[in-house]
UniProtKB/TrEMBL annotation:
Gene: LOC101394208
Biased composition (Basic and acidic residues): 53-68
Domain annotation PAP-associated: ranges: 442-485
Key word Glycoprotein present: no
SUPFAM superfamilies, A to Z: Nucleotidyltransferase, PAP/OAS1 substrate-binding domain
Alphabetic keyword roster: Magnesium, Metal-binding, Signal, Transferase
Highest taxon of source: Eukaryota
CDD domains in UniProt: NT_PAP_TUTase
Protein name (Swiss-Prot/TrEMBL): Poly(A) RNA polymerase, mitochondrial
Listed Polar residues bias regions: 563-584
UniProt keyword Metal-binding present: yes
InterPro entries referenced in this protein's UniProt entry, alphabetically: MTPAP-like_central (IPR054708), NT_sf (IPR043519), PAP_assoc (IPR002058), RL (IPR041252)
Cofactor needs: Mg(2+); Mn(2+)
Amino acid sequence: MAARGLGLLTLLPLCARRSQVLRPIHRLLSRAGTVAADVRREEQSSGSVETGSEDRTPKKKFSEVQKERREQAKRTVLIHCPNKISEKKFLKYLSQHGPINNHFFYESFGLYAVVEFCQQESVASLQSVTRTPSMDTEAAIPFRSRFFNLRLKSPSNQPSEQPHAQCSSQSSPSSKKLFELLCDAESIDDQLNTLLKEFQLTEENTRLRYLTCSLIEDIAGAYFPDCTVRPFGSSVNSFGKLGCDLDMFLDLDEIGKFSAHKTSGNFLMEFQVKNVPSERIATQKILSVIGECLDHFGPGCVGVQKILNARCPLVRFSHQASGFQCDLTTNNRIALKSSELLYIYGALDSRVRALVFSIRCWARAHSLTSSIPGAWITNFSLTIMVIFFLQRRSPPILPTLDYLKTLADAEDKCIIEGHNCTFIRDLNRIKPSGNTETLELLLKEFFEYFGNFAFNKNSINIRQGREQNKPESSPLHIQNPFETSLNISKNVSQSQLQKFVDLARESAWILQQQDQDRPSPSSHQPWGLATLLLPSVANSLCLAKKKKKKPASERIKNLLESIKSSSAENSTDTNGKSTVSTQP
Ligand code: CTP
Ligand code: MG
């Protein structure tokens, strides 16, 4: 297999190698370049904030979205461009290889273009006229990928009056901007929807995620030509915030599928293969070699770490050009299925995503979650908690997983490693909920519910939609929806759980207080969700409450005043760039 792989990685004469320095991730994605893309973007953002019961447009199956996006990514290339490039000339130059369907520019320590051709042959045509760079002091490891570097033959030939490529920021708003947007909102419902709109993955960011997987697939394909690299987790389950990691699944099942083909006569041909003692060891060996490949030959892949002894072995790396922190796993099909399940829950009712985004941002603002692994609650656990809470409403806003299983037909049947992962995949066949509760009420009730949940004896279970006795003594027990013997929050310590409970109670209390004492919109004071997202509000209020010095309304007023002035000072990071305290 390795020998076959060398076909793509064959060493050509030594050429210059671009230095690969691990840089902090900073993304400023640009706008898509076509009218069609603009229309789609409008549709996406407006569609995402309508209520589920109002939105009657048929929704695509998860598998259909994945198929379309993957196919689109295969026709797409990534180009590092000179800084001052004329967009018109750039497009004209590339159009020699075929018509372009869509393009956009973004900045990430340099200018990049994502260009989607109408036909895949155009990519091959572009590759056929592309050379491997040569320099005097360094050597290039040649790899004919879809990640290019465009240089100007003579930079002075670009007339300065030519309009340059337009880049617009696609990163989430600064704390200051978010604070303003939330304060200007008309209601708490409006605040939650605003936050969703500002933090959800944009069309361009989603395209870049699928493209990055497709580029990694090309590299892994050097060893395993029929492999597929699929995104999973928050990049595709509709709960991803701008800046979230890119979880990838190296799917080698397509390779095995050929054995299912019918053969004539009494013969059956099999590949000679190496055997190893267990599936886990096979996974570790495959990831080890792909990790080496990414490290040595993967254009733009830096900081490669092989974390092979984890429960789920993985290769972690930064994809420099896209700025994504990537986790590559294999043999992890169940996680792909949970992503599909979450996608369905997210699409069933628009209140789901709005509530999940706000809870995720709230948890991040109070350091309940972290990008560093540890004893913290994860975003995945928080999402399951919101789903569970919505299953517990009366009438329920979301159905249980067991109910989704009863709606499944023969084609939906799915057993993975002995686990029954069957549920209905066509979400248009699921009846919308009759529950009409507002987001404001749901937010308040979420904090009430989990502020008083019997975590010491009960487990959270979205399969049945009701609490169950905890089967083990972990402080927080959330049953994995498919591998039901697993607790997805086994890592969470008692003190982190206590912090979550305290903050939930405080947040419920703040919202209750504001019911009676809401500042007028003209006062430009933080209120509603804005109050909850400002770090340390709850802690300070908690202290103030304990001291019982002043009436609640006055304490809140004073505190919010001080936060308002300090938030303006704290809205830039050490690089002088705007930061968002609610980012992962
Ligand atoms: N997963 C799981 N069990 C866990 C942790 C993760 O099944 N204990 C699966 C889930 O499908 C999850 C995916 O792995 O969505 C990716 O995990 P992670 O990156 O931690 O969560 P995300 O949902 O992607 O959220 P984030 O935005 O924080 O990355
Ligand atoms: Mg993730």
